[in-house]
Structures are given as structure tokens and as C-alpha cells.
Task: structure prediction
Amino acid sequence: MIRRAQQAIVVFLIASASGVVAIAQIRERDSEWTAPSEAAARPNPLAGRPETAAGGAKLFHVRCASCHGPDGRGASKGPDLMDAAVQAQTDGALFWKLSNGNTRAGMPTFSFLPEPQRWQLVLHLRVARRAAEGRARATGISEAR
Result:
């Protein structure tokens, strides 16, 4: 009986440590990296065309998932893009960040992508967040941060 209790404690400690390591492996967001107000005010010309988000999803998996994770929840190289602080930024601010990068924090510039593709990426981030919130409501698990 004592042996089983010891085994259960060891399993619990290993599982807990794994969760802490996974959380610690998500890169912190640079809270001081902000878009100029005129850039932040730019509207997304694709906002009324949600069907274009599928192209953004493809681009995300090719260009962004290696740093931000396949679901955008962050990884060792890139922060969680589903985080409320990121999602609270305007489409224009996110577009500006994609276009200009932040080399200090390891974010490359994606200005080589045509503007419509960068707007598609922004739209994908919005759609992905809404999908995560929908899953959270359906399962009762807080996926959306």
C-alpha cells in the first residue's frame, strides 16, 4: 500500500514538473513593442471576407508555426498569439508588427509577403482565437486565454 502511494506521488510530481516546463517554454511577449498610432488605425481590408482566413491559416503553418506553435499558443521561440493582450491589439497594429518585425525579440519581418497575405495572417489570428473560444465553451475548458 505504501509503495503504491509512493508511486502515485512520483507520477504526480513528474506530471506537475512537465506542466511547469511546458509553460516555461513559451516565450514572453515584448509588452513594449507597440505600433505607431497611424499604423494601428489601419483597417483590415479583408475583415469582411472571412473566407480569406483559410489562406492565412496556410501561411501561418508555413511561416509562423515553427516559432508560435501550430495553434499559435506559443513556443520557445515565439509568444502566445491567442493571449488576450495580443488579441486586444488592432488589426492594423498586428499588420504593422508582421510587416516590420522586432529583431530585438526575435520576430522577423514579413514585409516580403504581399500585403494581402499579411492581412490574411491577421485575419487568421482572429478566426483562430474565436475557434479556441468556441472550443472552450463547448468543452467547459478554458482554452482561450
